Amino acid sequence: MSKAGTAKRPLALAIRAVFGVLLLLLGVAGFFAFAAGFADYPVVEPAPNAKPWIRGAYHVHTTRSDGNGTPAKVARAAKAAGLDFVVLTDHNDFKPPAATWVDGVLLIPGVEISTNAGHLAAFGMQQPIEGVKPWGPPEPAVAAVEAAGGTAVLAHPVQTKNPWNDEATAHQVPGFELYSADTFFRQALRSPVSRLLPAVGASLVNPVHGVMLLAVPEPRPTERFLELARERKRIALCGNDAHGVPAYEDIFNALDMELPPAVLSGPLSQNAREAASQVTQALASGQALCVFRALGAPEGFTLEGFDANTREAPVGTVLTVRLPEHTPGTLEVRVWGDGRLQPDGQHIELTGPGAVQVEVWAHAPGRFFGHEWRPWLVPSPVRVVPRPPGI
């Protein structure tokens, strides 16, 4: 064999190996695509005659920063997903457009501020944020949001890429992204075969199922959140962190923030500024609910037994979880922190002092043909305070 032929042989083998791997990956993706065709949503059927909740997406990016869709495109996607509002949080957009109605969807101005300690999302400002420069220290950013009358949120605070690493301001900021779609995606990148490939394959047939396969919570966000929630009232939010990939509509169909009628009953004001104030005040109250909407609507759910305004209850209190009608075995209540779930699965004894996080999880379609437990309804935590003397 000539020297030229000998030199070409390793290259040919390498090319065959690459093609072989690609064919294998395509075959695996095709298997997950086939399985996705049998994924049945929702897990919980809608309650008949229930009063609908106001729904929206929080933490969304447009072409004003690194999103691939204009605000109008985002509004169209939100309308298709049945949303009432979208909180736009473009990076370092300190002069966003005023609140406006587009295609029947309320676009609410917000911002995601890049600091040298991580990313700080904010909404509900009554005046412009001033005196803040991108990638500066976190203290001025937190103070500027407060001075503007807004609500600050630690965006994806334990994410590997952009975690929040300033301890002092972490204790000052009321909001915390407990679940983040962007964080789920970045976690999947670290497990490309077991998590990312199934999601990509499923997305070819059932895009919402593909997004839901990424929703595999890890313990660190909840542990960190409960540390902070022991000190003061904290607000749990789920960030869509939507940039257009996956598609806005698919992200909106999978995950949203919802406002119970007891907190804000519709319809919203047709005055965009008034409606934005209604929504942002409701979000800041801590009474909004994060809903993995693909699994079902939350109508019929309540968490009872604490002060709704302060989100506090004394040690020894028993909280009650009321669940929507569902098929037995499809839902379960999960508890973290200073609470103990009782044998009936719907009452939680507060064992604090400290904080307790109560969530409802659903037996959702899995990566293959089976099912996996995933979060469905995520309220803000309840702070457990000492029982007054003599009681």
Radius of gyration: 23 Å
Average pLDDT, rounded to a whole number, is: 92
Order of helices and strands: HEHEEEEHEHEHHHHEHEHEEEEEEEEEE
- CATH class designation of the domain at 54-299: Alpha Beta
Under the CATH scheme, the architecture of the domain at 54-299 is Alpha-Beta Barrel
| SS strand fraction | 25-35%
CATH homologous superfamily annotation of the domain at 54-299? Metal-dependent hydrolases
GO molecular function, one term: 5'-3' RNA exonuclease activity
InterPro entries: PHP_domain, Pol/His_phosphatase_N, Pol/histidinol_Pase-like
Keywords: Transferase
Protein name: Phosphotransferase domain-containing protein
Keywords:
391 residues, alpha+beta, TIM Barrel, 15-stranded mixed sheet, four-stranded antiparallel sheet, 10 helices, globular, 5'-3' DNA exonuclease activity
Outline the fold blueprint.
Elements: H1 3-36, E1 54-60, H2 71-80, E2 85-88, E3 100-102, E4 105-115, E5 118-123, H3 138-147, E6 151-154, H4 167-170, E7 175-180, H5 181-189, H6 192-203, H7 207-214, H8 219-229, E8 235-239, H9 248-254, E9 256-259, H10 272-284, E10 289-291, E11 302-304, E12 312-314, E13 318-322, E14 331-337, E15 339-341, E16 347-350, E17 354-365, E18 371-378, E19 382-385
Parallel strand pairs: 1-2, 2-4, 6-7, 7-8, 12-19
Antiparallel strand pairs: 1-9, 3-4, 4-5, 5-6, 9-10, 10-18, 11-13, 13-16, 14-17, 15-16, 17-18, 17-19
Helix pairs in contact: 1-6, 6-7, 7-9
